[in-house]
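Comment thread on ticket #2218

A.B. wrote:
> Attaching the input chain for the structure job we discussed in standup.
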Amino acid sequence: MSTVLETEEHRALRDAVAALGKRYGRDYMSGVIREGSHPRELWSEAAKLGYLGVNLPEEYGGGGGGMAELSIVLEELGAAGSPLLMMVVSPAICGTVIARFGTEAQKRRWLPGLADGGVTMAFGITEPDAGSNSHRITTTARRDGEEWLLTGRKVFVSGVDIADATLVVGRTEDARTGTLKPCLFIVPRETPGFGRTPIDMELQAPEKQFELVLDDVRLPAEALVGDEDAGLLQLFAGLNPERIMTAAFGIGMGRYALGKAVEYARTRQVWKTPIGAHQAIAHPLATAHIDLELARLMMQKAARLYDDGDDVGAGEAANMAKYAAGEACVSAVDQAVHTLGGNGLTREYGLASLVTAARVARIAPVSREMILNYVSHQSLGLPKSY
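C.D. wrote:
> Ran it. Output below, let me know if you need it in another format.
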């Protein structure tokens, strides 16, 4: 895929990560999934090479880059068949929020570990009855002297079993107005009252999903991230990178599937002619390639706006990038399986499991319908129906 819009440093990073991904690949990730394990070796090596913390500040052990660099890392690992989903959560969401809004003590406590991969942090926002609608979140935090008591439930929280802590989105009461406002708290894994239960998923992935129950979880004052009155700003500072990185996840997966299909169409012969010579096979693959390229362009725009500090512009572009990448990913995987026919459903070619996995890019962390709502209201100025 073309990289003419990227700097020489970006292209070098892309090539280096692609080489790392190639050493592991889909067979490695499939083995991890079969064993019910985690991709610790790949995570550790990516961390050692500085890829996991490439977006975090240099003074705390990071690479000093931004979403542009981190999205390249995840995309290339995905294109090699070995994406690291926790990159979306740990360095992108949690690392960014702490780097931008955390106290100096919080930055010193958490960022070096997030940068070198020694510390992993999960992110809890989705609730059974609220989804990820920050206005309907019922997990509440109330003061008890200098401490906080956090109570509520979260669902579809990735990687809690391996995370050292979870960044939990709750709501606190505004002392002036009495209304509830979002706030973010760092909850270490072994904190009393912090319970987790695995969710039985059909999706095959090394990252397990959990339901969390917070039963009067007592937290010190320093567990609150940043300013109590800047909740929404802090929240979206994490959600925009999440959308950008989900786009990278989808683009990488789509590229992997498309690569398998192109290789097959180039070599599979029927009546002495490779099937890729037939337009009925070639054109849908060409369309998938175009759609992935277009999605990547929007992802690059979103990353650039975010790294430049334009949170409003980045919000629109990040939502569009996530939408475009989700659609392109699903189409690419579907067409790849279709190109291989029966072989596309065999374990040997490793595409069938992606049929389910590709849907993640469409529905998480926000559905395409909610993105269309966002664009309708924010970009086009149309009235809300809710």
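A.B. wrote:
> Thanks. Noting for the ticket: The chain is about 50% helix and 15% strand.
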